[in-house]
Design a protein that fits this description.
The strands form two sheets. Strands 3-2-1-6-7 form a five-stranded mixed beta sheet. The N and C termini lie far apart (155 Å). Helices cover 54% and strands 9% of the residues. The model has no long low-confidence stretch (mean pLDDT 87). The relative contact order is 0.11. It is built from 14 helices and seven strands. It is an alpha/beta fold.
Amino acid sequence: MDAMEYLLGWIVPVLQLFRQRRKEFVRQIMHKLHTSARKRRGRRLARKNKRAKQRHQYYTEVLRVKTVWAYPRTSDWWENTAMNYNDEQWLRDFRVSRDTFRYICRTLKPALQRQNSSFRLCISLEKRVAIALYRLASTVEYRTVANLFAVGTSTVCRCVHSFCQAVISLLRPQLVQPPNQAKLAEKADYFETKFGIPQCVGAIDGSHIPIRKPPQYQSDFCNRKGWHSIILQAVVDGKGMFWDLNIGQPGQEHDATVLRKSQLWTWASTSNSFSGRVRNICGTDVGYFILGDSAYPLQSWLLKPYPDTGRLTQSQELYNVRTSRARCVVEHAFGRLKGRWKCLSKRIDCNVKVVVDMVEACCVLHNLCEVNMDTFLPEWNYAESAVQPRPGSGDMFSGGTGSAARCALQQLFTEQQ
């Protein structure tokens, strides 16, 4: 019994010591394993960060300066020459004042602003607007504009197209829209003060915009002069500003046909806008109306001259002279439009959809320049009637409801003489 107690007294401490040593050994082994795993994870993370840093350096420093990816150009003209222009030099190249240029940049910023990427720096907003204005204000090719601004030719195309779409979506609702009754009354009063014709709110005419031969329906776009064009039909108020536009009809169309297909015809025929304020002229109630040439149909809201048959009375000739003098405002507007934005006076080598957007954007910019009273230089004058094909004098749509109003104006002019 004593031997057993002695043996147990010796074995129990040994077993306890063994268990303690085993726990310490296991704990050391696990600690080494965890430490080794942490080191391996740290090394893997370090290698991953190193590879990411190398990729970033490659994309930002190596790939960006490769001549294959971006052709090296100098932007000295834009950064050092154009930015140091005086006001007159700026106006000659970009056709708008600096204040108007800044207003355009602020208004179109939501549509034209771009962000830098890890591949390359974006073109600044001011440079994108300047590229588009320079192209619209001149007859130079895209390649010439690209060389001046140190960008690619395709970049110039994209800048011009996106600029025109932004002008149409953001500026046109403010500058070109059908007038309400208050605006019609204001336009009628101004027209009467300037030309002595009561109740007139504008003049309508068409202008041909040269285009390249389209891939389809070439004969439809060939006008009377033998070159391909689309028609810009516009209504202009007494100040020479557009308030209705219809762009894109083929050049072979007659002016009366273009009018019948326009929203102006629907708006004037279905609404009572032109009869909002009626005025008694020589015993006849006359509403608002616009003036057109002999190619347009006679309507209560659209008056045209008497056809020159060689047997006109003196009062009819007087009516034709007075209304013709007033209709010159639309020809002058077309002249200022094409004089300021020279791209419209030369064939535009783009598809018809792009040409329509460019013409519409130029009309909106014309109104903006007139509102801001930007200077129009004398050398920009453009002889509109010298190169424009004119339709035949016969009216394609006989009849009309404006005879009474025309007779009333004829009598008024005779009494005023």
